[in-house]
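Researcher: Here's the sequence for the chain we discussed earlier.
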Amino acid sequence: MSVEEDAGDRAKRAVDQQQSLLPPLWRTLDRTVLALTSGGALYTVHIPTSTAAPTVKKVRTSTWQNFDFLVAEKCGTQSTLLTR
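Model: Thanks. This is the structure I predict for it:
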């Protein structure tokens, strides 16, 4: 086994170990994107790791008036956690 193969194996094991700590539903998703319309509606678009179609869920139908605040915090190296 070459050094590159060994490093690749270590990286895969590290990713697998991190994914095992996630809730089961999160393990099936590759990305979640927020979509905001000009009317203020907010949607989440869950993009699965498989070839299945993305799932779109409505979070808010219009305006932001009822939110006291919306907080976006960095979560890991490539993610953002939204809370209200």
